[in-house]
Amino acid sequence: MAKSMKDLLRRALKRSTAEYCEIRVEETEEVRIQFRGEDIDQVSESVSVGGNVRALVSGGWGFVTFNKLDDLERKVDEACAQARILGEILKKEIKLYPVPPVEDEVRGLFETPAFKVPLADKVSLLGKYNELVLSQPEIASSYIRYFDRHTHLYFANSEGTYIYQEKMDLGGNMSAIATKGNLTTQESVRFGSSVDYNVALGREEEIVRAAAAARDMLYAPVIKADEYTVILAPDMAGLFVHEAFGHLSEADSLDENERLKELLKVGTEYGPKDLDIFDSGIEGGNRGDAKYDDEGVPMQRTYLIKGGVVVGHLHNRESAWKMGEKPTGNARAINYRFPPIVRMRTTCIAPGKHSLEEMLKDISLGVYVAGGYGGETNGEMFTFTASRCNMIRNGSLHEPVREVTLTGNVFTTLKNIDMIGNDFSIKNTAGGCGKGSQGPLPTADGSPHIRVRRVVVGGEKK
Amino acid sequence: MTGEALKYARESGAGATLTFRESQKIEINFEFNRLKGIQNTESLQFTAQAIKGGKLGVAVSTKAGGEKEVLDRAIRLCEYGAPANYVFPDPEPSEKPAVYSEEVASLGLKEMLRVGEDLSAFLKSLHPDVNGSVTVSKAVFRDGIANTNGLEATWDRTVLLLMAISSLVDGQNLVDLWDYHVSTVLNWDVEAMKEEIRSRFDLARKNVPVKTDAYPVLFTPFAFRDLISPILACLDGRAVTIGVSPFKGRLEEQVFSPQLTVIEDGLMEGGLESRMYDAQGVRCRRTPLIEKGVLREYLLDLETARKLGREPIGTGGVGGIEPGNVIVPGGSLSKESLLTGMKRGIVVENTMGAWAGNPFSGQVSGNIAMGFLVEDGELVGRVKDCMFSLNIFTHLKDHLVALSRETKNFGITLPYALIDNVSVTGKKG
């Protein structure tokens, strides 16, 4: 299959009249399983076959998608014609940062392929988790979601690159839902991987803890709105770095924006001396990891901040050429219906030297924040909502509080990080990033605990 | 092909529904004040639902001519699927919603480029350092449904989108202003969009401090959506049947202010989500969900309607509830009069992160991504680095001051909403 596809794509690319042309073809099979309450809610499978052609002429991009592979040459003609229409208007020199052509086939780099596990086993496992959730005290209901997908991805371009990549992606989210009167609270166990179905196994203890946390929240007051010193647990700190600095580092929003480029220029100081932030597609097994990105560029670990100072950005080939930096393997498209744009993969704050006890000890009033529902950024500001929080009083953790949403200015909040923990973990979930209407794109976040001063926390009026 | 596939399902002893969606979309993008690209997206998708042995199997395919294969897959999955104590309905007449425009379908690339260039040039004219982004797109959809009981229908829809975003980096201030138009007919008003952005451009660059306190807040339709979304989650029949919705067992109860009505209308003229039948083959219709604050109905599919002893209302999806067009009718006052009546308050145009959180708690908190302080009925400057927080169950019951008579349709149709006593938290000092 792979060999004939190579011939098919290369033959079609010979039609290209553009400065640059690429074809991407995807075949994906996906399984979804869902439980809600006592019953299984859905078992579904989907098969997706399609592709796209992208062509560049004088700064204008043509992009055409298709579901049938039988008329690829016409699609190449269409994409080139569109690019030419734009190119004649623009007459702009846009180049792609040169990378050596690659011929490669990447197969089966999986530990336990989800697509080889029988459906009956997956349904049985999730059914047992569902029963466990529902058996916990004061838990009224459950919401269990699982998916896995297996993709054959073919990529060829007019520079001679041909890459076949076999990919896997899986994720799960298991929520325990507690109710008391009209109040409903929930807490979840989440997992994800690009290589190993076994991450879905052995989640029983986490489920029991999540159910207990949901139950505790039933009796927790809504937090009083104020500015607090917060300690972010690794999952929340990971979400923070994705929202707060990762998006700003995506160079397709910088490369023609002189003011933003100036704000993010290499050498600018944004954090404490022990703050290192990186993005990586090669940490191993995280959602979004692969050998090549969607322009055929090898993935790598890219430092964005080192010692509190900006040292790099995330690039595709176009933004790298425009900014005179090297591509970083961050061109990503969620599927064949979209062109690749600059996206994060696993974004991390590197571990520091402080223990959690050290972080807690001099806080007279603060908040310990864990369990992320989700977050968002608009470039300068970020916000995220947590599901599992406790007040910190006089150096130790105290009562749980609920409905905790944090916000802040990206730049000042990074400067307000005053302690970085010596623990570190990478969190994979069933969610992802939603930039450019291409969501949820598989991503992961990693961090130790971090402490941040003066964070605005929304809630009830004092 | 569909007929053959359904015949195969019948012979396999399964009840089945097959839906398809075929679409063609052309999108032109301008970024950094210049033309960036054209995208021509063709899409085809079949979705099969099969019920066999009292269980539901679901399969999806994008393979052209893949109807029989996708049905076969759905039938095979029934062994593991969700209990389905219902059958797909017999054909019931429905009407084709008025959501197709030949003018949109035939809109030429040249005209789309002209409008995009015009808006892009306008954005650039606001300030030398503005980065303007414009998206112009048109899409033509053909949807169809058929089932083993003889239902067979297709309907067409067009969607026109125009979006303009002005981004300015002003020191460490990132000022994003935007407006958009989305409709099924060719009725965009480019000059009105320009005015909408121009009118706030200077004001958005003037930051004013906001003290932590409770304020009257005027939510624009776009921001009001963050308060309506959790209501829809609570109205979801599945959330009701599994007992997590606070609306369980409260039909005919006054749950919100008498000013608030929420309607589901799958047949709405010009509705972006209008359709003849829902994904389970139930005809679409107009149903009040909340009427003058009283809970009248849930969003239902065949399974939840049966469990709750209700009639389905055309909001069944594939393995879940899928509302059609949700409408919150406006009130009697203009948005200007709601603004001028505020002594000291805040206008929230755009929020960030307010969608996150537990929708069943009623608590909604979010960053005020774009908002303005109001003094004596006048906008005086932008509020930043602050959050709003309220509880929809108390604020939309006891603190809803008024809804504007103007509404905006962006898949959901909403007015401006003035709500009192909203907690707003700003930075100290």
Q: Output the radius of gyration of chain A.
A: 24 Å
The biggest sheet of chain B amounts to: 7 strands, antiparallel
| Shape descriptor of chain A | globular
User: What gross morphology of chain B would you assign?
Assistant: globular
Number of beta strands of chain B:
18
- Number of helical runs of chain B? 10
Average pLDDT confidence of chain A is 94
Name the strands of the widest sheet of chain B in spatial order: 4-3-2-1-5-6-7
Estimated helix fraction of chain A: 10-25%
Biggest chain-to-chain interface with counts = A-B, 88 and 82 residues
Question: Can you give a write-up of this model?
Answer:
The complex is a heterodimer of chains A (462) and B (429). Chain A is of the alpha+beta class and 462 residues long. Chain A has helices spanning 2-13, 72-90, 119-134, 204-218, 234-246, 258-263, 317-323, 356-361, 410-415, and strands spanning 20-36, 39-57, 60-66, 103-106, 139-157, 162-180, 183-193, 226-232, 277-280, 301-306, 309-310, 331-332, 341-342, 346-349, 365-377, 381-393, 396-401, 404-409, 417-420, 425-428, 444-447, 450-458. Chain A has two domains: 2-218, PmbA/TldD superfamily (PmbA/TldD fold, 2-Layer Sandwich); 226-458, no CATH class. In chain A, the strands form four sheets. In chain A, strands 1, 2, 3, 4, 5, 6 and 7 form a seven-stranded mixed beta sheet that branches. In chain A, strands 11-10-9-14-21-20 form a six-stranded mixed beta sheet. A five-stranded mixed beta barrel of chain A has the order 8-15-16-18-22. In chain A, strand 12 and strand 13 (341-342) form a beta hairpin. In chain A, helix 1 packs across helix 2. The model of chain A has no long low-confidence stretch (mean pLDDT 94). With 429 residues, chain B is of the alpha+beta class. Chain B has helices at 2-11, 67-77, 102-105, 109-126, 190-201, 221-235, 237-241, 302-308, 335-340, 392-398; strands at residues 15-31, 34-52, 55-61, 82-83, 131-147, 152-170, 173-183, 213-219, 262-265, 286-291, 294-295, 326-327, 344-352, 363-375, 378-383, 387-391, 400-409, 412-425. In chain B, strand 5 (131-147) and strand 6 form a beta hairpin. In chain B, helix 1 (2-11) runs parallel beside helix 2 (67-77) and helix 4 packs parallel to helix 5. Chains A and B meet through strand 2, strand 3, helix 2, helix 3 and strand 7 of A and strand 2, strand 3, helix 2, strand 4 and strand 6 of B. Strand 2 (39-57) of chain A pairs parallel with strand 3 (55-61) of chain B, so a sheet runs across the interface.
